[in-house]
TrEMBL record, chain A:
Its EC number is 7.1.1.-. It catalyses: a quinone + NADH + 5 H(+)(in) = a quinol + NAD(+) + 4 H(+)(out). Its main location: membrane. This is NADH-quinone oxidoreductase subunit J. The chain crosses the membrane at residues 6-24, 31-48, 54-76, 88-109, 144-165. It comes from the Bacteria. PANTHER family: NADH-UBIQUINONE OXIDOREDUCTASE CHAIN 6 (PTHR33269:SF17). It is an enzyme of class 7 (translocase). It comes from Roseiarcus fermentans.
From TrEMBL, chain B:
Pfam families: NADHdh. NDH-1 shuttles electrons from NADH, via FMN and iron-sulfur (Fe-S) centers, to quinones in the respiratory chain. The immediate electron acceptor for the enzyme in this species is believed to be ubiquinone. Couples the redox reaction to proton translocation (for every two electrons transferred, four hydrogen ions are translocated across the cytoplasmic membrane), and thus conserves the redox energy in a proton gradient. This subunit may bind ubiquinone. Its EC number is 7.1.1.-. It comes from Roseiarcus fermentans. GO terms for biological process: aerobic respiration. This is NADH-quinone oxidoreductase subunit H. NDH-1 is composed of 14 different subunits. Subunits NuoA, H, J, K, L, M, N constitute the membrane sector of the complex. It is found in: Cell membrane; Membrane.
Length: 199, 390
């Protein structure tokens, strides 16, 4: 009973905010609605009993990814009038793409079934907590996939760093080690300065 | 805060303080009496109804949450007074001493003043987000308290992933600041929000690794279980602050950064950004922002007490110390950490922004990453690790 009530609350908010992401006039509002959608999805996970997934969704997507996303959208100087200009001209192409995506979605969802390979996978025993069960499967049976996913993310991160890192010449850089290694003996020099001459 | 200065407030704020203080105390008494009747078995039937039927459980959760809320709100009032007295002592002055006996009603006078002032919304502000931002902040700050175990079994929601929940809630706290900064449509708030987002995201990384080491040692994500795992015959030497001393220090410094406290209060550095993201806020909206900061400090202190200082456990694990109720120990530990927070604010100068980022990414991150590997290896090869799979 309570589950059903909360399911309807969360799913209504989820669908409503997902629609609002598209229809909000202000892009910052769109991102805020996207965050609301994430949080409601986490609520749905909680109802399913997948508390670990719910928390990770909030920590990773809402707590880190969406923050950066929100910032980029905030700092972009978006001209709303110009954004609306091309709406009618691009409508046919947009509808076509929407139709293709919709058809693919229907095709995939209608043909969906649990694969026999996954169905036979190690099912966690009921006594384990959600997190422990997930860990046992992830770090034993799927450990190579897990590592591969990690390497893909690492590659993406290194790529981003390589693209943005420029070593400019002629710029004074801070060397913290050298700064901390300085002592009064090496940093201060006492000189006898003759009057009206300077150093 | 005008009442921090030793000017005499007008009589209306005195009356407000008395009414506010009286109302708060009355609410606490009512909640305490209800709680005592239920817990003490005087309403055994009522208690059973509250544990067994759906409606009763819902009512119990609401009552427990309300009791927690009232206690936390009262603690924020105590925190305001306590911190000002600490800073006063450090600066060799008296601190608040005008409203009420020894000035103890100062926080209530403050709260009353904020409530009766006129809230001003800038014409250029994005009104919805501007009003929503303090609400988001304050709700998230209070939400974290749901999983804090103040004593053995005294917790509103004893969930399996308590520590992840805390981490999630504290990482969401940045939204209140970003929304406030953006919705104000003003230069200083936006710059402040930028700084805050970068700072909080950076320090969350090391906080995450610290939490990972703690939960590897405890073998559980449940906060009550983490406290129980620290219950050894060594007493306070068995709590995680000693075996994980580097992580304890990193956690303390990172929690200062996470709550935007000095020396990391770059988001509201007066000399650079006036009051940061709070520049455009006034009256009760400002009060909510202000409350959020206080509650976040209390939450971080409670988290430190639970993760590293053994929560409700007695420092010496034998009578007569074990006869003292656990909540007393918990509060003592929490307020000791709060005292450290206040002292740091009193005498550590503010960091420069590049130093702050360097500390987070180039010092804390490598150390905590290395410690995760080290702790995991030690637990694995010495067999000290908790047996989770059982």
């Amino acid at each position: 009973m309570a589950e059903a009530v909360f399911f309807w609350i969360f799913s209504t908010i989820l669908v409503g905010s997902a629609v609002a992401v598209i229809f909000a006039r202000n892009p910052v509002h769109s991102v805020l609605f996207l965050i609301l959608a994430f949080v409601s999805a986490a609520g749905l996970f909680l109802i399913l009993g997948a508390e670990f997934l719910a928390m990770i969704l909030v920590v990773v997507y809402v707590g880190a990814v969406a923050v950066l996303f929100l910032f980029i959208v905030m700092l972009l100087d978006v001209d709303f009038a110009r954004m609306k200009e091309g709406f009618v001209t691009y409508l046919p192409q947009g509808l076509l793409i929407a139709f293709v995506f919709g058809a693919e979605l229907v095709y995939v969802v209608s043909g969906w079934a649990v694969s026999p390979h996954a169905a036979g996978a190690a099912t966690p025993s009921g006594t384990l907590s959600n997190t422990a069960a997930l860990g046992e499967v992830l770090y034993t049976r799927y450990v190579y996939f897990f590592q591969a996913a990690g390497f893909i993310l690492l590659t993406a991160m290194i790529g981003a760093i390589v693209i943005t890192l420029h070593h400019k010449v002629g710029v004074k850089r801070q060397d913290i080690g050298a700064q901390n290694a300085r002592t009064p003996e090496t940093a201060i020099e006492l000189r006898k300065v003759p009057s009206r001459v300077g150093i | 805060m005008s009442s921090a200065t030793p000017t005499r407030p007008d009589s209306s704020s005195n009356w407000l303080a008395i009414i506010g203080g009286g109302a708060a105390v009355a609410v606490v008494f009512v909640v305490a009496i209800v709680w005592w009747l239920v817990a003490g078995g005087y309403f055994a039937a009522l208690g059973r109804w509250m544990h067994e039927s759906d409606l009763g459980s819902a009512l119990r959760y609401i009552l427990e949450a309300l009791a927690m809320l009232v206690c936390v709100l009262l603690s924020t009032a105590v925190l305001i007074y306590f911190e000002r007295k600490v800073w006063g002592s450090v600066h060799i002055r008296r601190g608040p001493n005008v409203v009420g006996p020894w000035g103890i009603l100062t926080p209530f006078a403050d709260f009353g003043k904020f409530i009766i002032k006129e809230p001003i919304i800038p014409a250029g502000a994005n009104k919805g987000a501007f009003l929503l931002a303090p609400l988001v902040s304050v709700v998230l700050a209070f939400a974290g308290w749901a999983v804090i175990p103040v004593n053995d079994g005294w917790v509103v929601a004893d969930i399996n992933v308590g520590i992840l929940y805390l981490f999630a809630v504290s990482s969401l706290g940045v939204y209140g600041i970003i929304m406030a900064g953006w919705a104000s449509n003003s230069k200083y708030p936006l710059l402040s929000a930028l700084r805050s987002a970068a700072q909080m995201v950076s320090y969350e990384v090391s906080i995450g690794f610290v939490i990972v080491t703690v939960l590897m040692c405890a073998g559980s994500l449940n906060l009550s279980d983490i406290v129980r795992a620290q219950d050894t015959r060594f007493g306070l030497l068995g709590w995680y602050w000693l075996p994980l001393l580097p992580m304890f220090i990193i956690f303390f410094v990172s929690s200062l950064a996470e709550t935007n406290r000095p020396p990391f209060d770059l988001t509201e550095a007066e000399s650079e950004l006036v009051a940061g993201y709070m520049v455009e806020y006034s009256a009760s909206l400002f009060l909510l922002q202000f409350l959020t900061e206080l509650v976040a400090i209390l939450l971080m202190s409670a988290m430190t007490a639970v993760l590293f200082l053994g929560g409700w456990l007695s420092p010496l694990p034998f009578p007569p110390f074990t006869w003292i109720p656990g909540i007393v120990w918990f509060l003592l530990k929490m307020w000791s950490v709060v005292f450290c927070f206040s002292m740091v604010k009193a005498f550590v100068p503010r960091y420069r922004y590049d130093q702050l980022m360097r500390l987070g990414w180039k010092v804390f991150l490598p150390i905590s990453l290395f410690m995760v590997v080290l702790v995991a290896a030690v637990l694995e090869f010495t067999g000290l690790g908790a047996n989770v799979s059982g």
